Amino acid sequence: MTDRIYNVAIDGPAGAGKSTVARRAAAELGFVYVDTGAIYRAVALAVLDRKVDSTNEAAVASLLKDTNVKLQWEQGVQHLLLNGVDVTDRLRSPEVSDASSRVSAFSAVRCFLLETQREVARQQSVIMDGRDIGTVVLPEAQVKLFLTASAATRAERRCKELREKGLEAHYEDVLRDIEERDYRDMHRELAPLRQAEDAVLLDTSALTLAQSIDETVRIIREKLAL
Ligand code: DC
């Protein structure tokens, strides 16, 4: 690692493999991996725990007044503290996924989380993954990647992942969830999911995980002349 601070933005739809690719690429390059979906998920968890209506923006905005979201790293692993409590293990349920996609459309939520993300990127070299990192959060990032794969490929991968964890997974349901989330993420008014003009497009539909990581690291090294 050098003394310079580098910011790499990786955006793309749910299930494109962003998090695994970003995490492994960050480890190879000695950068910190920042999963920004976790902070939206934390807000969603707060909403669910407090039984706030996730479709009511005013109610969600009001909840934010006494909500604190903090990212920290332990041996390179990201942890999410919600009001001081580590809730990392509670962020991946389907209920939280669904609610996070809803609350992330609210401007109050996006404004609330923006500075948290920028502050993390000012302090260290990061690979930050999300939906609007290259377009809104880090428009000055030295490298921007848009990682995608067909909805069918993403659904197959997600089913495999769930089954490996011993969870039940029905392909049609998983595909429908992915398509619904894509639609919401791409059609929301604020910071919708889209490829930044200066982002490199990487479609991983026909790539293995190892190939996707290699290609990502290659692109980053080339752009940063590392
Ligand atoms: O990446 P993920 O599945 O953990 O993200 C959960 C939700 O958060 C997703 O539906 C969209 C939203 N999100 C966002 O709006 N902006 C980001 N930078 C990251 C996630």
Note down, in words, how this protein is organized.
This protein has 226 residues and is of the alpha/beta class. It contains nine helices and eight strands. It has helices at residues 18-29, 37-49, 57-64, 94-103, 107-123, 133-137, 151-164, 171-187, 209-224; strands at 7-11, 32-35, 69-74, 77-82, 85-86, 126-130, 143-148, 200-203. The chain has a five-stranded parallel β-sheet with strand order 2-6-1-7-8, with helices on both faces. A three-stranded antiparallel β-sheet has the order 3-4-5. A hairpin with a 2-residue loop joins strand 4 and strand 5. Helix 1 packs across helix 9. The chain is globular, with a radius of gyration of 17 Å. The structure holds 2'-deoxycytidine-5'-monophosphate (DC). 2'-deoxycytidine-5'-monophosphate binds at residues 14, 36-37, 40-41, 100-101, 104, 130-133, 181, 185.
